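The methods section describes the discrete structure representation at length, but only in general terms. What matters is that the chain and its backbone geometry are given together, residue for residue. Nothing conveys this as quickly as seeing an actual entry. For illustration, here is how one protein appears when written out as sequence plus structure tokens:
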Amino acid sequence: MDSSGKEKEAIQLMAEADKKVKSSGSFLGGMFGGNQKVEEACEMYARAANMFKMAKNWSAAGNAFCQAARLHMQLQNKHDSATSYIDAGNAFKKADPQGEAIKCLNAAIDIYTDMGRFTIAAKHHITIAEVYESELVDIEKAIAHYEQAADYYKGEESNSSANKCLLKVASYSAQLEQYPKAIEIYEQVGSNTMDNPLLKYSAKEYFFKASLCHFIVDELNAKLAVGKYEEMFPAFSDSRECKLLKFFLVALTMQKSRTVFIQVKEFDSISRLDQWLTTMLLRIKKTIQGDEGDLK
């Protein structure tokens, strides 16, 4: 059957499901298997949704899954309702408007938190954050959902997952020039990881990023911060990141940007600069010489 045939069959199933729902609400329907009719309607909506998916009619698929989710909730099938809302969200993500996807995912989150399933709720907050950062380009809202996910993960002692979310928050906060917030997170995650034998070498990256944020705000704070991180984590002192930071201190004192960029080039030749580091380094360059330009 081609896609148009699947779509027609899906529309017919939706109509049959609607009839079952209406009949279940009548007096006689309530007396004679009202709940069974609602359960059958749930199955029909789900089947229709999958047929719409095969026809690539994503909005119709999302709407059908939403109908199934509402009926599952009516039957107190919370898990099935949440699953249907997730299916609806995934369908709506492939169509416009993206807002419908977020509404469905939030509905699922509400159910999961009511059930005490905070790890699953956190996972779907991340999905919403990713929609905001990649599709809707609303970074403030993405940050809010990453923060909520981190809170849920922390409550479930999933500290590694919480840290991943917090690092996203720190990265975006720095981009939005919310440096104190970014610094606090990088220091927190750095402190947490430096005592972990498997993760301690990541600590130098987080202290490096915290230091860059300090440099953009205030030279004296940057100097004090670098010293504090060296004291907290002695391995940081011998790192290439720390040596680069100390060159920055010299350049800031002497107002010599050329010294910095020779060192940045050398650093980049070993560890390629990503977009975040490039942005922060350009801001430091502006601090040193008062204009922006190419780091290369």
Notes: Confidence is low (pLDDT under 50) at residues 26-33. The chain has two domains: 1-116, 177-296. The radius of gyration is 26 Å. The chain has 15 helices and no strands.
